[in-house]
Structures are given as C-alpha cells and as structure tokens.
Design brief:
It is a single chain. The chain is α/β, with parallel strands linked by helices. It has a single domain, classed as Cytidine Deaminase, domain 2. The protein contains three helices and eight strands, in the order βαββαβαββββ. Strands 7-6-5-4-2-3-1-8 form an eight-stranded mixed beta sheet. Strand 4, helix 3 and strand 5 form a beta-alpha-beta unit. The structure holds zinc ion. The site of zinc ion has 5 residues, from strand 4.
C-alpha cells in the first residue's frame, strides 16, 4: 500500500498532539493508495484505547464518496509502545476490509523508522497480517 507523505505527517502530528492519550482517525483513498488522513474523535473512556466516533466515521465516508474515493482504513497511535496490534486491537477490529495503521511514538520501533513510525496490518479472524507501506513523497 502506498501512502502519501502529507498523510503520514498528519497522522504523526495528530498522535503527538494527543499524546500520552491514543488518537484515531480515518484513511481515505483507493485500494492502492492512501492520499488523506482525517482526524476523528476518540470515544474511548480509556485513554490507552481508541474507539472511532461514529459521526466522524460517517462524515469521512461521505467526504470520500463526494470526491470519488473511499474510506480504506483506520489509524490510531501507540504513544509508548511499538506499532504492533495489541490483543485489544485484534479483538475489537471489526472491519476486515479496512487497513489498520498504527503509529508509534516510542522511538524504539526500528521496523517502522522508514515510514515515520507507521506500520499497517489487515486484522482478520483475530490475526494480524502485515501490509508493506511505501511512502510517496
Ligand atoms: Zn492499538
């Protein structure tokens, strides 16, 4: 999956702004490329978890459709840990067609350095399948 640099930058900015709480948002684009990251409210009462606000989710779907795109995934942050899905992330992943993008702010995620701390996964049937991310300048 390709992701444009401006979307990576926006996700990192959002994650830093909400840290040490987790942030979340939606990814817009098509099946080959993410071109926009849109912030969403985090409805989780637990700051170390995330739940995308449904209104923001529908708003992103509407905005994507209006411009001939789709919501292709969801992002959230791991302020203190590596960008791997937690057991909760796996258990609560309800969209098998969505790419789940996680940004780590820990600075220790060496597998994610070349993507600005981002890693991407398909979360299906309680399993995480790694998707290679390529950042387009
Ligand atoms: Zn997580």
């Amino acid at each position: 999956m390709v992701i444009v640099r401006s979307a990576v930058d926006e996700i990192v900015r959002h994650a830093k702004a909400e840290s040490p709480d987790e942030c979340c948002g939606l990814l817009l684009g098509n099946e080959a490329k993410i071109d926009t990251a849109t912030r969403a409210r985090n409805d989780s009462p637990d700051p170390a978890r995330y739940r995308v606000n449904p209104e923001d989710h529908f708003g992103a779907i509407h905005a994507a459709r209006a411009t001939g795109r789709r919501v292709v995934g969801v992002y959230h942050s791991h302020p203190r840990s590596v960008a791997s899905p937690s057991p909760t992330d796996l258990a609560e992943a309800s969209y098998s067609e969505y790419l789940y993008l996680i940004v780590s702010l820990s600075g220790h995620d060496e597998d994610a350095v070349h993507t600005g701390g981002l890693r991407a996964y398909w979360l299906r049937d309680g399993r995480a399948i790694v998707e290679t991310l390529r950042v387009e300048p």
